[in-house]
């Protein structure tokens, strides 16, 4: 992320020369196509500077000036400026510049001569055709808004006669018309209106315009015209002078703010925003433009002076005595705060703005907040205090004190109100209007806003409130002197640090960090400020895990922040609605526990333990995870500190309370909706309790029952979790099962109960969990070695394809293989001591058989999960046994050359399979087995190692068919691997992706084309054909292999590769195999593939197989499926059309006419006689059906 940001950050406008060259092309003139390409390139360049548009400022004059000169030429001759003219591209270019840099900056570089006014306006009027690009009209409006500011009476510029409409009237009418536009012209027209009506010489047109707007708004104005009118009014009351606007306020504009049409647009955020904006403009007009003399003024804004010795001296000039009491300073300024009449309408204005702070849309609240700040800046102090009082009351709306905890309950408050109020407070503070004595009231609310998070269903709201609260803290840093904020520094600093590392949202973490950094720089009194901003910077907080686990840990080393960080995790983050945050909170507590282990034992664990039984699952889940991780962390600390170990052991009451959590948790929590999260947490807790070796104790039962040992409760929970269907729950349960077995031991009866669960076909999910659990047990403790052969045997059985559909569960088979792999790794060098050679061979055969698992369900080839797991298991097994064999005598070796050839053949087959993930897994395993060595001596004795090492390298791209298949086909020369590798290549030809099918089939055909037809010393084409026949035999009726095999055979015949074989017996065997596969088949795809093979056989010259192939194709002409009949007719037509002149006879020509002239999709009784004619015409004997033999 950091690299991306740096890469997109520019230091200067480095495309200036290219833009000038492209601009010259547009100015000189070009064709439409070149002009389109040029403007697109200009758009791409300017888009790059959207976030750093200020870099263009030094070049704007050269980027805008020449274009304006050229446009003035066009404006002088508007008739030559049609909709097809490339001159419109110049207007579009100017729009792109204004989009990037803003029209206010760009318009300064446009010409503003008096003589331009009428020509530009006439040009705009001529551009009213909708076929003209809208950018042309928009730029004309922007241009006119500058020209009309000329310091001359516009009536003197008007060339219209007395009988004609004046220029001013025409301009106003055009603007009114374009206020209805749906595009940017509306904004341009509003701006031009504002510039015109703000002129003193056109002041008499303002009141009629306002009356016109009220008429339109009350009439049938649509949403676009309404937005245009309100926008124009906002601009008028921004640019107009107060003397001109003041007479229009009471009787004309104020009634407009409360008109009924606003109710019609109550769901339109833009209209509401424009109303709020207009309200604040009107409020500002009521008040004289001045800065409140009673405001708080900080002495210096210089950062250097602020941090230096002069900072305090400068501020004392403003405030003396108690920094929270400004009465003395305010009274001294009271003489300057002269009495000013404030209209009663201002109360309505402020009421609208304060209600705008509650609006549901951010843009409305932000506009209202800015309006509150600007208006308050001009109010007398007494009225301003009233505004601030009401503003602070917004925080108190719908709050109540929880009677049980005596804490403020915010569950009923509005997030929109809090966000708007926070923005308003920030605006007031930034302007010095929130006086220091108000901070004691304000800061507690802002600290609550920093952690504002309201749960709503399965999510929460409040990120925008927290972001606004960070803005408030940022504004405090810039507004107040250090000694003013000093009483609140500790509170603000700790809360900002907590939010910057533990907030869920990245923008809030970064905003909090920015506020903290601003306070460190401006105030200079934040504890350990410089050190913390070096740790918690923009980039380090970008990654949530890094922020929680690393940055927080480093900051917690500063004593001022340790307790706030820990307390926030315990009281807030472990109860967060997002599961990922609760998990991170538990992991963060694990790291922090190492800093204050006694604090965690004495306070944190006793505080968290009761919440593990809470009825709210989120609270219970977070508390259990936190207790588990803290116990795990304390184990590491206890191992290093004997005193801490003794102190831990003395807390027997706490240990009993923690150990009994699985017994005391409500049973419903483990079975109801969402219980999988509780089971994950409780299994993690049991695992950690086993790791830390919590003493086993009896638990008293109710109703006088016998006490039950706490360990039995744990085992019951773990076993029930192993039988859940959620994989995550099973993973946690497996870890807990292994921890219990490692710490407290496991009996033979428990192991064999697990084996029975694996063998049971009724427990589909249980088989998955117990298969993984058995792999977690260590079999080298006590007398467990004798159990291992039975465990391996059961797991091998569970990994095989099951006959019953319900029992053939892919996850169960995969987990059984994973369990075997873990056992192999745990056994290590004692493999031969616990497993005999027969056991090894059974294990090896089982894993090899797993490589033939191609089970499918609605999810696809789920057998690939088993094959991938088996290959990884084979890697561990072969390398382990190979190393043991290398250090033992030859007669005790478990591995042989035959075994290795068989395994490598299976792996090579998987390395060319159709699934990328499987190929990549197989390739990785092959490279590891092939190249792993000890002391430069290879571990495994692999047949044809030289061939494999020649073509299989570590840098081969196994997932890329284009790179893989041209290499792997060469390994077909190695006889031990040929059949399996060829089978894999064939099956890939039936893949779903075009690139896989193309490369696998074409590479195989190219390789076979390069083989000699027959040879006794090297691989020949005939030998390859025999292997293809062998695939027919081995995979009979298995469409997964047979279908792509027939497709490849069709391509081999079509390309003439197999036609080089002269032995008729091979072709005949292929024909018989294909016909056998298609006998009584209803698989249309298989039948169509067979027709391609038969068609390919028609290329065999002087062969009986050719005749049989034509006979078979003619028989398909009356097949039950019309699709097959149509395909065969096309194949027969192709066959006849490519015959040589010597082979063409009257019969074949007539047959061609019959084939092309017959509708083969018609009813069978109609087309069968026609088909029968083709036998004689093609000189092919008609097959004679043998009569059925009566038994």
What is shown here, in short?
The protein is mainly alpha-helical and 1191 residues long. Helices cover 64% and strands 2% of the residues.
Question: How many angstroms separate the termini?
Answer: 82 Å
Unreliable stretches: 1-7, 309-337
Identify the quaternary structure here: single chain
The number of E-state strands comes to: 8
What form results from the Cα inertia axes?
flat
Q: In what range is the share of β-strand residues?
A: under 5%
Strand order of the largest sheet: 1-2
**Structural class by helix and strand composition:** mainly alpha
Mean pLDDT: 87
Question: Level of helix content?
Answer: 55-70%
Output the number of helix runs. Answer: 62
Please summarize the sheet with the most strands.
2 strands, antiparallel
Gyration radius (Cα, Å) is: 42 Å
HEAT repeats: 349-386
Domain Tubulin-folding cofactor D ARM repeats: 270-530
GO molecular function, one term: GTPase activator activity
Domain Tubulin-folding cofactor D C-terminal: 902-1086
